[in-house]
Design goal:
alpha+beta; 7-stranded mixed sheet; 6-stranded antiparallel sheet
Length: about 425
């Protein structure tokens, strides 16, 4: 067989045309390792009334941090609310923020006011210690002027976009994400209303309130859930019989039955009475639904409890831990008990009580080892063992894995919320 080595003019034209068509694709392959900077989604609601802004505590009692912005920014103080333009070199360059002698220092500029507000231009995004957040940044010096708090001032809906994607995987069913958005919006507004006037922030960015990760938690699916539920909140009858928003608590895995809020947090709302949940087991990770035994040294347990609750020092060393109260359930996955109150007996012969959820988080602040109070506490030599554990979280309100389980079965966000918050209704607030 003879192979023709010469290429005629027509063939050459065809090859050239093909190269022209695939050149852009080849360029993308070559540059694939260089990630292009994504354009930021505009921040909505920047012009809404102050009552619908959320104050999120990002940093607590710190002496310094790193600030970076995508755009020029202005600075206003408590004494001079008229913001003045400040230029600190190039955009996207880290700026040192610190406090000394009662003065906040940003770059080379000093401010004698105990409150400073940094307002970026569009897209209204700033970076604090490596994380992007929307809205504004407020720095507040603490009473002794040796440290400061960093508070994110952010409109409600963009705040929720940073919560929903942090509290749930963004690939979960749309109905589950929408239910999460409504529950998170309700919880935030309740906490703001109840506690906001007594402090300089409304919620924390951690699970102590609800997890907030800012821009990195956002996605198209998350924004779709937030936008589709725009302004929607839950209401129910409260302790006085009047209808209003309530703390729409939620946790990761209820373990088969959600708990009455009165037994965990001490408050009573019609919609937080507890329900049997047959939906979470098939969604939850196996070691979250049934978690393995964990042990803690007895000396460590005593130290953690006394540090968190100084009143317990009169007990001396904690010698015994007993279940004082518990909720017993017969659910879809068998019979089990959730501790709600524990009795502590000390070496001095004195005793005291703690809510079981407070006890759990005092010992394991992360809540990732003692995952819930559905467990047995066993005296194990020089250790305390927590055995037969089930579920992840406090168990009050919506079970997040259960919400996903319901969504998989075709239930809507309204049906999910109606199930986990019985007697509640959805209303739409007007911004």
């Amino acid at each position: 067989m003879v192979i023709e080595k010469n290429i005629n003019n027509n063939q050459l034209k065809i090859i050239n045309n093909q190269l022209i068509r695939i050149a852009p694709l080849l360029l993308l392959v070559i540059l694939g390792g260089c990630k292009a900077r994504q354009l930021a989604r505009p921040t909505p609601q920047m012009d809404i009334e102050a009552q619908f802004w959320v104050r999120v505590l990002l940093l607590d009692d710190v002496t310094d941090c790193k600030l970076k912005t995508r755009s020029p920014f202005s600075i206003g103080t408590r004494d001079n609310s008229i913001a003045t333009r400040q230029h600190f070199g190039q955009v996207n360059v880290p700026i040192n923020v610190s406090v000394s002698g009662g003065r906040i220092t940003i770059g080379s500029q000093h401010f004698v006011s105990n409150e400073v507000i940094i307002s970026p231009d569009e897209p209204y995004i700033f970076n604090l210690n490596g994380n992007d957040y929307r809205g504004k940044l407020k720095l507040i010096t603490n009473p002794e002027d040796k440290s400061f708090d960093a508070v994110n001032l952010v409109p409600l809906e963009p705040y929720l976009a940073g919560v929903v994607g942090a509290e749930m995987p963004n690939y979960w069913e749309p109905a589950a994400l929408q239910a999460q958005a409504i529950a998170a919006r309700t919880y935030c507004l309740y906490m703001k209303k109840r506690f906001g006037s007594k402090r300089s922030w409304d919620v924390k960015r951690t699970q102590a309130s609800q997890v907030y990760l800012g821009v990195k938690a956002e996605s198209a699916q998350v924004w779709e859930a937030v936008n589709r539920t725009y302004g929607q909140v839950l209401v129910c009858k409260g302790p006085g019989g009047t209808e209003g928003i309530f703390p729409a608590y939620y946790s990761s895995v209820c373990g088969g039955y959600t708990e009455n809020s009165k037994h965990v947090f001490g408050d009573f709302f019609e919609a937080l009475a507890g329900v049997a949940c047959p939906y979470c087991k098939d969604v939850a990770k196996p070691d979250f639904f049934f978690w393995p035994m964990v042990q803690f040294d007895k000396a460590y347990v005593t130290n953690r409890l006394l540090r968190r609750y100084p009143k317990l020092k009169r007990l001396g060393e904690i010698r015994n831990i007993r279940a004082a109260k518990q909720s017993d359930y017969q659910g879809n996955y068998g019979r089990y008990s959730r501790l709600t109150l524990v009795k502590l007996l000390g070496s001095t012969g004195k005793s005291d009580f703690l809510r079981a959820e407070d006890f759990r988080l005092a010992i394991d602040r992360s809540g990732r080892k003692i995952k819930s109070t559905i467990c047995q506490i066993v005296n194990w030599g020089d250790k305390w063992a927590f055995m037969s554990g089930r579920g992840y979280g406090h168990g009050v309100g919506m079970c997040q894995c259960g919400a996903q389980g319901m969504a998989r079965k075709g239930k809507t966000a309204r049906q999910i919320l109606g199930f986990y918050y019985p007697g509640s209704k959805i209303l739409t607030i007007d911004y």
